[in-house]
Design a protein that fits this description.
By secondary structure, this protein is of the alpha/beta class. The protein is built from 13 helices and 24 strands. Among the domains are: 117 residues, Rossmann fold (3-Layer(aba) Sandwich), CATH 3.40.50; 91 residues, ANL, C-terminal domain (GMP Synthetase, Chain A, domain 3), CATH 3.30.300.30. The protein has a 7-stranded mixed sheet with strand order 7-6-8-9-10-11-12, sandwiched between helices. A 4-stranded antiparallel sheet has the order 13-14-17-16. β8, α7 and β9 form a beta-alpha-beta unit. α1 runs parallel beside α3, α6 crosses α7 and α7 crosses α8. The radius of gyration is 22 Å and the shape is globular. The termini are far apart.
């Protein structure tokens, strides 16, 4: 029999999103128990690495266990914590983003801040496009639920199913990533655009939005309804109406209320947040200390992103965390994938990188040194990695381009990609080592 859950306990959720899932998350947070939302497609090895870090007191891996859990929890009320989402960082080592337990006043302030920014109300209908184990869709769904609104979960993303839900459920809010919009627009080109007049808020984030997609977003949805925001698993930085983006092309907006942004001379971004928005990396004081510093305005954190802030406070991102791949709004960390595929028999050396992709923003690619067939790599990735982390393209290289200190020159891997050849400007003094051209 499982030990009773207490405030501060952690419950790993490895089941698909549903209304029961959302209710369980709400009840857990009401009890001060931290849900750890995870992709149910994770392999046993991936789960093991995460569990070593977050040390869950209970693991929920099927629907019956979820129902049994709900029966032991109090009715949904004020959340006394934030879910503990996991992020790997560029090291490939999982980190649990931990808010700790919030005092009731801070808990109410957190709920009120989200409601004030996004206007959550009891007549809202939130359409969920992304899996609820991601922080943004879960935050929008929970915010709607806390305001007394309704949440619509049409299942795994499918443009036809989403279009049907728009017609039948008349949603007022939606969070999406650019890849969702591209697929929806392509579908609507074939079938016609549904009536979108019910929407008051369409927020997107997770990856850079192509200009043509952004312009179509503005032209397609009701005026004044579309937003972009910039944030991370650790915390939220900015929010920006699309009309502001049009006036200042490329911006991701100004600091959200209660926050203050600054940039170091090298472009590293820091954000001062209210007490209820602070976090630590669970069980890792060293990584926590590296993420925070004291400023005259209060404690500020960084996730290593770079950008610049103009005189009016608008942020322009220069780059995401070093080497991070953002594919369809999903963060993929090359080091983690390399650590797994490097154990595949026949692989001598491997480097994973992101190449530009017109639909997903970036696609995951791997440069491989060794004697191994593509099908073997594919099968190995399928057995050991969740789908978003599996390379979509493999290339044979005789040797990886590296600096004198041994760091892989990932920009040269992209330049050597036959689908996106470089212009020779950023090859480095020695120039790239060319691949032999195996593609999938």
């Amino acid at each position: 029999m499982s030990a009773p859950l207490e405030p501060g306990s952690r419950v790993a959720l490895l089941v698909p999103g549903s209304e029961d899932y959302l209710d369980a998350v709400h009840r857990l947070l009401t009890a001060g128990v931290l849900p750890v939302p995870l992709d149910p497609r994770l392999t046993a090895g991936e789960c093991g690495r995460i569990f070593e870090v977050v040390r869950p007191d209970r693991v929920i891996a099927d629907q019956q266990a979820l129902e049994d859990l709900r029966g032991t929890l109090p009715p949904p009320g004020l959340p006394l914590a934030r879910p503990m989402h996991c992020t790997s960082g560029t090291t490939g080592t999982p980190k649990g983003v931990y808010s700790g337990l919030l005092a009731p006043a801070d808990a109410r302030a957190l709920v009120e801040e989200e409601a004030a920014l996004w206007g959550f109300a009891d007549d809202d209908v939130n359409l969920v496009l992304s899996p609820l184990y991601h922080s943004a869709p879960l935050r929008f769904a929970l915010g709607t639920r806390l305001a007394g609104g309704r949440v619509v979960l049409p299942g795994p993303f499918d443009p036809a199913r989403v279009s049907e839900a728009i017609e039948q459920q008349r949603p007022t809010t939606m969070f999406c990533v650019p890849a969702h919009l591209q697929r929806l627009f392509a579908h609507w080109d074939r079938t016609g655009t549904p009536d979108l007049s019910s929407f008051r808020l369409v927020a997107h984030a997770g990856a850079p939005c192509p200009v043509d997609v952004k312009e179509r977003l503005l032209a397609t949805f009701p005026a004044g309804t579309t937003w972009e925001f910039y944030g991370s698993t650790e915390g939220q930085f900015t929010a920006c109406r699309s009309e502001e983006w049009r006036e200042r092309p490329g911006t991701v907006g100004r600091a959200r209320p209660g926050r203050r942004l600054s940039a170091d001379p090298d472009g590293t971004l820091w954000c001062v947040v209210p007490p209820y928005a602070r976090f630590s990396y669970f069980g890792d004081e060293e990584k926590t200390a590296a993420a925070w510093r004291e400023t005259p305005e209060g404690p500020a954190f960084t996730v290593g992103d770079h950008g610049r802030i103009d005189a009016d406070g608008y942020l322009y991102l220069d780059g995401r965390r070093e080497d991070l791949i953002i594919s369809g709004g999903v963060n993929v960390y090359p080091t983690e994938v390399e650590q797994v595929l490097g154990r595949c028999p026949g692989v001598t050396d491997i480097a994973v990188y992101g190449a530009p992709d017109p639909t997903w923003g970036q696609r995951v690619c791997a440069a491989v040194v060794g004697e191994v067939e593509t099908d073997v790599l594919r099968d190995y990735a399928r057995a050991h990695l969740a789908p978003p982390k599996r390379p979509k393209q493999y290339q044979d290289w005789p040797a990886l381009p590296r600096t004198l200190t041994g760091k892989v020159r990932r920009t040269e891997l992209v330049a050597g990609d036959p689908l996106h050849p470089g212009d020779g400007e950023d090859q480095g003094q020695q120039g790239p080592t060319s691949p032999s051209g195996k593609q999938t």
